[in-house]
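Catalogue entry: protein

Sequence with per-residue C-alpha cells
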Amino acid sequence: MNFIVTSIRLEIDNISSEQDLLIHERLMRPQQSAMRIAYNRLQNKWTEREIWGDLRDKFPFLTGRNVNDAITQAKGILASQFELLPVDTEKTKRALGKSKNAQITNKSRPLHKRVKSLYLKVNQLQEHQANGTVPPVIFGGQHAWKDVVRRLSSARAQWRHRRSNQFISRGAKNNRGNAHCRLVITQDSELELHIRVPDKIKKKKSKQTTSAIWLQFPISYSKQFDTQLRDLATLGAIGQVSYTVRVIRISHQTYRAFITCDEFVEHREFSTFEAMPNWVTTACGIDLNLDHIAICITDRNGQFRRWNTITYPNLGELPRPKSKWMIGNIARDAVDWVKSHNAEAIVLEDLSIRRSSQSSRTNRRTVPFAYRQLAQAITRRALRDGLAVKTINPAYTSWIGRVKFAPMYGISVHVAAAYVIGRRGFGLDERLPQKLINRFPKIIEIIDYLAYSPDIDTEKLQEWRNRLMDWKKHTPNAGRPWLLWATLHGIKRISSEARSIILG
C-alpha cells in the first residue's frame, strides 16, 4: 500500500484565559524545556534511557509519552543538523570562492570583511565535521535572538514566546488514535479537539503518575478536509488509525493545530533511478519556471502529443502567503489538465540534483519562490488524483529542447524542455540531429581560432575539439547520454559565433 503524509490545519476556537494558562504552563513550556535538555544530553552521549529518567524527575507533570515525544523531537533536530552540515559547508565554500573572485576586481572594505567571515565560517564547519559535532542551535530562532542582542523593545519576550509556544503529541493506535489530543465527533455531529492537561501528581509506591482533565474545544477548518477528519476521529476511536497533533500558541488565547496522518494513494513516486512502470503508456513532462509552467504530453515511444502553459504572476516577487496560496491553485490546474487528456503519470525534474549557479539577480528573484514547494504541491495533487509521479535528472533539458525540438515543432524553449523531461521519464535518450553533426567542422574551426586567446583554458578547448572530432564514441549508445550536449553548451557560452551555428 502507498501512503503520503498529510498535514491539516485547524483553528482552535473559544479558549478562555484559564485554559490558555493551563496548556501553556502544564504542556508547552515543560515539553519544550525537556526537548532542549534532551538535545544537549544527546550531544553529551547520554543514552535515551538516562535522558528519559532525568526528564521525568525534572518535569513531574509530563507523562512518559510526553517525555518520549520531547526526546524524539530532539533526535530529529540533531539528525537534521548532521545532515545539513556537509551541505552548509559546500555552500559556504562556493560563496567564499565567488567573493574571492569578486575581490580581485573590487578592493572594497565590506567585501574584504565578507571574505574573512566566510573563511572563518568554513574553518568552523570543517572542524565540526572532523570532530563529529554540529554548530550551536538557537532555539526560538536566530533572527529573534539577534533582535535580543540588539536590545530591541519586547524582543526578549517574543524570543521566549517562540521557545515555548507549542507541544507535540504523537499518534498511537492503541490509545484511540492519540493519547493526549483527540478528534471527537459530538452528539451534534460537530468536530472537536480534546486536549489532555495534567492536573495533579500522584505517587504510587516508587512510581509517579498524573491525573488529568480533558479540555474540549470547537475547531474550524477547510471543508475539503471534513471527510478525512471525520474518518480519523471515527477510525481512531476504534484503534485503526493514528495521527500526530502539533498545537501552536500564536498569541494569548489564539491557538492553531496541525493534524499529521498517513493518506492512502493508489500509486507512488518513482525516483530518478527507477524505471517508469510498464502500465504507463502516456506521461506528461512539466517544466517549472518563475512565471509559468510548461506541460507536454508524450507516449512511451516519445511521440509529441499536445502541450499547454499555465501562466501566473512572478512567484519570486509575491509575499510568501500569497505565493503559497497560488502554488496550490497552479498544482490543481496543472493536474486537472493532465487528467483531462488521459495521461497516466507526471514527470518532474529531481530538484535534489544541484543545478549550475545562476546570476545574482536570478538568485535574488528565486529565493522567495521555492521550486521545491511547487514541485511538491504538484506531486501531492497528482498522487491524490490517481497519477504516478516520476523524477528525472534535469541535466541539459532546456538546452536539448532549445536546440533539437523547439525548431522541429515550432514551440517555445520551455515547452520543448517539458517534452525532453517527458521523454526522459520513459528512459529515452536524445541523439544529436544530423544537421547539427554536419556543422561540427565549422565549430571545430572556431575552437581552433579561440585557442589563440590568452583568457581561455586551452586544455578544455582541446578536450572539446577531440570530442567533436570523434563524436561517435560519445553518443548515448556509447553510454554517454549528455556529454556531447554538455560540450556544445560549453562552447556556445564562450563564443557567440559558435552559438549562432549551433542554433542554426
